[in-house]
């Protein structure tokens, strides 16, 4: 018998386990019980698909405690493991991403168990409480049993063993107490019962243990004796199959945190039971914050999918639309076949019906939250609002009807987030459009020259600060029959008849000068014109066409063969002193007018938060004017 070494990375992870990077050592029992449950699920699945004569009632998990010898044993009659499976499952702890993840998150809370949940190293949590671990296992249908033994990072051995029945028995030699740690508690009935109830109450198979009961010895007044009974420690009813009246928010929250490895309570839970066209139980959660990888390509959406309590798929992406990809949870349906493959599942009619129903349930829950608990909804919005807006934009606006009433934007009136419905409800009678302005921050938008006129007219403006915002509104086209209009669109049609006539006269007077300025800018603008939107500022940029300046800024940051440009228009305020200066220069010094034109264009770019092409030249021109 030779000892085999763990692979280098597995050794590092195991070393971290043994040195207690997790303060909640009790989770080791949850992990071992979950593994036992999985093994029985596999054999139960086999019994349903191959008719081997086993029923759900044949399966159980047994816990035994030998306090004197410091032994805790977990036994199941699940599918067991072959020698190769022992080697593959217990000889390699995890993929390389685990060690990298832990290094990259060195400041994570010590009781963070995400590594266990995310990367499948739960079995090795046993070494947090055990000095050595023995696994005796016999695969269903095999004649030979095997024993895996390890004392930790030094390695492990695998030998043949004698075991009459299939299944797995895990024996832990519990560590001796230290000054810092009390390991005796993991040899007490009270503690073990509490751990099972806390973490594994919903396991679908009975978890049994001999439990002692003390009572007065017959014929005595103060002498007690203890007798032992085999008891089932868990209810075996999955939480999602329980009645809502049986459950409290605390029950839902605890299940979520343990099942989906989060330390924060979810913002909301959705527990639905549906019969009819599609029969299913669903328990879904809206997290309070986005996972660290949520807005990355590595994030994998999906709900756990069960059929009559048997897991079919750990993450069924087809159950959630992309706009609700943040939702965690599970669906249990008797309508789905256990024999269904991933490929067939994608085309399963029942699955599509369930998915559509879940979509409505999530939308209804968010709508209810928006109406009844605005503070909670705004917390949700800060975490996942971007995804909702992407949902409006993606698929050429396919999701706009579903999502439009969930949108929030910052209001120039309210100085807080408002819905489109709230905006439209207080529009003035003569207001034609829903006005919006785009920029990096609320403060920067608030100071944009283009917002001045709209504010002066007493109209509310929605401030768009996310890159997807304008694209989403463009896909929506309108809300409640009111079209969206950027304050930087140029022609807002807000002038009085008198103002329009005056503008017409001045435009005619200035057309030659503006043609000269346009030519001097060398194709950098589509047009130069008098502004209908400026009040006190000298110049600004607006755009013609569907692509706005803000959209150009977004697209310029994306890798693309196409260099999409907005059709920029340089607008000049006829009521600003600079206008008269430009007129004089056009008559007396066209060379200096070219310098002024370039400076004004670059000023307009800076106001928009866009880079100028030649900052050195711009600086020199400013200095030359200042020294005249």
Structure report:
The protein is of the alpha+beta class and 628 residues long. It has four domains: 8-232, Heat Shock Protein 90 (2-Layer Sandwich), CATH 3.30.565; 239-373, 2-Layer Sandwich (Ribosomal Protein S5, domain 2); 408-486, 3-Layer(aba) Sandwich (Rossmann fold); 497-626, Four Helix Bundle (Hemerythrin (Met), subunit A) (Up-down Bundle). Helices cover 37% and strands 21% of the residues. The protein has 20 helices and 22 strands. An eight-stranded mixed β-sheet has the order 5-4-3-6-2-1-7-8, covered by helices on one side. Strand 18 and strand 19 (482-486) form a beta hairpin. The radius of gyration is 34 Å and the shape is elongated. The N and C termini lie far apart (95 Å). The model is unreliable at 94-120 (pLDDT under 50).
What number of structural domains do the residues give? 4
CATH architecture of the largest domain: 2-Layer Sandwich
Helix content: 25-40%
Q: What is the H level of CATH, i.e. the homologous superfamily of the largest domain?
A: Histidine kinase-like ATPase, C-terminal domain
Task: Catalogue the unreliable spans.
Answer: 94-120
Approximate strand percentage: 15-25%
Tell me, rounded to a whole number, the average pLDDT: 87
State the strand order across the main sheet: 5-4-3-6-2-1-7-8
Number of strands: 22
Counting DSSP H or I runs of 4 or more residues, the number of helices is: 20
Terminal-residue CA separation? 95 Å
């Amino acid at each position: 018998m030779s000892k085999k070494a763990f692979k280098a990375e597995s050794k590092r992870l195991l070393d971290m386990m043994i040195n207690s990077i997790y303060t909640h050592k009790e989770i080791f029992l949850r992990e071992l019980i979950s593994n036992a449950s999985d093994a029985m699920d596999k054999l139960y699945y086999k019994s349903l698909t191959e008719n081997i004569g086993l029923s759900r009632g044949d399966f159980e998990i047994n816990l035994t405690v030998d306090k004197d010898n410091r032994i805790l044993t977990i036994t199941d009659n699940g599918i067991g493991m072959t020698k190769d499976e022992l080697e593959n499952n217990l000889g390699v702890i995890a993929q390389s991403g685990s060690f990298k993840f832990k290094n990259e998150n060195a400041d994570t809370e010590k009781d963070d168990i995400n590594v266990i949940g995310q990367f499948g190293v739960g079995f090795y949590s046993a070494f947090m409480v055990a000095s050595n671990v023995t696994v005796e296992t016999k695969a269903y249908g095999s004649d030979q049993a095997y024993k895996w033994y390890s004392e930790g990072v030094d390695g492990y051995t695998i030998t043949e063993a004698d075991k009459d029945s299939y299944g797995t028995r895990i024996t832990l030699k519990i560590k001796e107490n230290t000054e810092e740690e009390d390991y005796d508690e993991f040899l007490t009935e009270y503690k073990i019962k509490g751990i099972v109830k806390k973490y594994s109450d919903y396991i679908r198979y009975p978890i049994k243990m001999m439990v002692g009961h003390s009572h007065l010895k017959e014929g005595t007044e103060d002498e007690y004796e203890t007798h032992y009974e085999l008891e089932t420690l868990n209810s075996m009813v999955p939480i999602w199959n329980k009645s809502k009246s049986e459950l409290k928010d605390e029950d839902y929250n605890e299940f979520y945190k343990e099942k989906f490895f989060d330390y924060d309570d979810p913002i909301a839970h959705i527990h639905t039971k549906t019969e009819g066209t599609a029969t299913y139980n669903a328990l879904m959660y809206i997290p309070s914050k986005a996972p660290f990888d949520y807005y990355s390509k590595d994030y994998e959406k999906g709900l756990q999918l069960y059929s009559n309590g048997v897991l079919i798929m750990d993450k069924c992406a087809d159950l959630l639309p992309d706009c609700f990809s943040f939702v965690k949870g599970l669906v249990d349906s008797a309508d789905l076949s256990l024999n269904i493959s991933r490929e067939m599942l994608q085309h399963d009619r029942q699955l599509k019906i369930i998915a559509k129903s879940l979509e409505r349930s999530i939308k209804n829950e968010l709508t209810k939250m928006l109406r009844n608990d605005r503070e909670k909804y705004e917390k949700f919005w800060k975490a996942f609002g971007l995804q909702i807006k992407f949902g409006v934009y993606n698929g050429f606006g396919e999701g706009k009807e579903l999502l439009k009433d969930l949108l929030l934007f910052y209001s120039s009136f309210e100085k807080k987030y408002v819905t489109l419905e709230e905006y439209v409800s207080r529009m003035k009678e003569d207001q034609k459009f829903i006005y919006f302005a785009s920029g990096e921050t609320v403060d920067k938008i608030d100071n944009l020259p283009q917002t001045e006129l709209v504010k002066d007219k007493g109209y509310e403006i929605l401030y768009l600060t996310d890159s997807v915002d304008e694209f989403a509104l463009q896909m929506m086209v309108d809300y409640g029959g009111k079209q969206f209009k950027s304050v930087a669109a140029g022609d807002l049609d807000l002038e009085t008849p008198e103002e329009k006539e005056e503008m017409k006269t001045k435009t005619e007077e200035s057309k030659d000068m503006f043609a000269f300025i346009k030519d001097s800018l060398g194709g950098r603008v589509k047009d130069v014109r008098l502004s209908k939107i400026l009040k006190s500022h000298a110049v600004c940029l607006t755009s013609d066409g569907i692509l706005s300046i803000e959209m150009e800024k977004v697209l310029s940051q994306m890798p693309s063969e196409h260099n999409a440009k907005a059709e920029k228009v340089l607008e000049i305020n006829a009521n600003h002193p600079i206008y008269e200066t430009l007129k004089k220069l056009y008559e007396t010094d066209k060379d200096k007018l070219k310098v002024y034109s370039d400076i004004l264009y670059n000023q307009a770019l800076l106001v928009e938060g866009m880079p100028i092409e030649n900052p050195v030249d711009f600086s020199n021109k400013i200095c030359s004017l200042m020294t005249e």
